[in-house]
């Protein structure tokens, strides 16, 4: 499992935008993924408060969601976001890193369904929650 | 009878206000998003840069870039429409706006992105439509396209909480 986590970590860090946001994969399960993004002054949406822009949190949640699909036992060869809906419950606390945990809870032949939660250091009160539908490309070959 | 202001004075006041609004948000500068203004109408423009790639093998823009671009366009579009009304009606002092004393930004309540096709490694454009802007809530739609406006690559829908009424020099 450590190897898979290492490979997946390198994969996330090879995505230029994920790297620009300093995203780091910290956990990968069978259809679940956790990615952390540090607070950064450049990602702030409201300079009066120092709160991160919703778009940066959306980017983190989208990445964690895609990673959870790729880690699903269906072993997809690739995935892409079809839609993502995010509810912002509260502003992220300035200075704290954000952690998104995504769970790919159901897959069909060609679609994966994901739930994702983003928290700052106060893990009891999520910053944002989302649901998404993703495409699922299965490996070619004889049908199972 | 009062003579109309010279057009350059009006343009300069509006451009300065827009620059103050956009320049206040670090994340907009980080992504490199700019806004083109024609009258009250804004078009967001995201020039391509390699940082924006999510899938290097295709290559395609990162889904988070698309989401961010839509959300930025929606929020600035909404804030600009309010600022425009305040400026035109003389409810807000352009000198204060130019000095960066802007009304608080609306806050995103929820945000839905519809990814229609992969974002190509090219410039992106987006426009927001404020479908409703009430005292407390607003509903904004946004579409993003690349080469061809008739073929959008992503659509967004954003609900916002409007800032508390701070006019008349409130807190």
Instruction: Give the SSE order of chain B as H and E letters.
Output: HHEEEEHHEEEE
Stretches of chain A where pLDDT is under 50 for at least 5 consecutive residues are none
Strand line-up across the major sheet of chain B:
1-2-6-7-8-5
Major beta sheet summary of chain B:
6 strands, antiparallel
Kindly report the oligomeric state of this protein: heterodimer
Q: For this structure, what is the CATH homologous superfamily of chain B?
A: Hotdog Thioesterase
Instruction: Outline the low-pLDDT stretches of chain B.
Output: 167-171
H/E element order of chain A: HHEEEEHEEEE
Question: What CATH architecture of chain B would you give?
Answer: Roll
Radius of gyration of chain B: 17 Å
Q: Total domains of chain B, how many?
A: 1
| Whole-number mean pLDDT of chain A | 93
CATH class of chain B: Alpha Beta
Write down how many β-strands of chain A occur, each being a DSSP E stretch of 2 or more residues: 8
**How many DSSP E strands of chain B?**
8
Describe the structure.
With 144 residues, chain A is an alpha+beta fold. Chain A has one domain (2-137): Hotdog Thioesterase (Thiol Ester Dehydrase, Chain A, Roll). Chain A is built from 3 helices and 8 strands. In chain A, strands 1-2-6-7-8-5 form a 6-stranded antiparallel β-sheet. The model of chain A has no long low-confidence stretch (mean pLDDT 93). By secondary structure, chain B is α+β, with helices and mostly antiparallel strands. Chain B has one domain: Thiol Ester Dehydrase, Chain A. Chain B is 32% helix and 30% strand. In chain B, the strands form 2 sheets. A 6-stranded antiparallel β-sheet of chain B has the order 1-2-6-7-8-5. In chain B, strand 6 (124-133) and strand 7 (137-145) form a beta hairpin. Chain B is globular, with a radius of gyration of 17 Å. Classes of the chains: A alpha+beta (144), B alpha+beta (171). The A-B interface holds A 14-18, 20-21, 41-48, 52-56, 58-60, 62-63, 66, 80-88, 91 and B 24-27, 29-31, 50-56, 60-65, 67-69, 71-72, 75, 104-105, 107-115, 118. Strand 5 of chain A pairs antiparallel with strand 5 of chain B, so a sheet runs across the interface.
